[in-house]
Amino acid sequence: MHDDQIDAMSKLLKSMSHPIRLKILCLLQDSEMSVGDIREQVKTTNANVSQHLNILRSQGIIDYRKDANFIYNRIADPRIVQLMQTMQVLFCPDV
Length: 95
Hints:
- This protein is an alpha+beta fold.
- The chain has a single domain (3-91), classed as Arc Repressor Mutant, subunit A, CATH 1.10.10.10.
- It is built from five helices and three strands; from the N terminus they run H-H-E-H-H-E-E-H.
- The chain has helices at residues 3-16, 19-28, 35-42, 46-58, 78-91, and strands at 33-34, 62-67, 70-75.
- The radius of gyration is 14 Å and the shape is globular.
């Protein structure tokens, strides 16, 4: 691997490593979700969820679409879904 590839992977993993962001990514594996639905599942404030979603968006990990007054989030890169599934197999075998 080249240094620039290692730097990119490190930046990506750092963005994903917060417990709330990991939970958000677990939730988004199967389908897109609104900010409100994510907030209910994560059990935190809208502001906190928005802050974490912005970090994930800035790294290109998630994307969103607007539908009227709702914002729906989804994982932007299928490699992230694959990574999340692999981590679940390795670390959460009973799920």
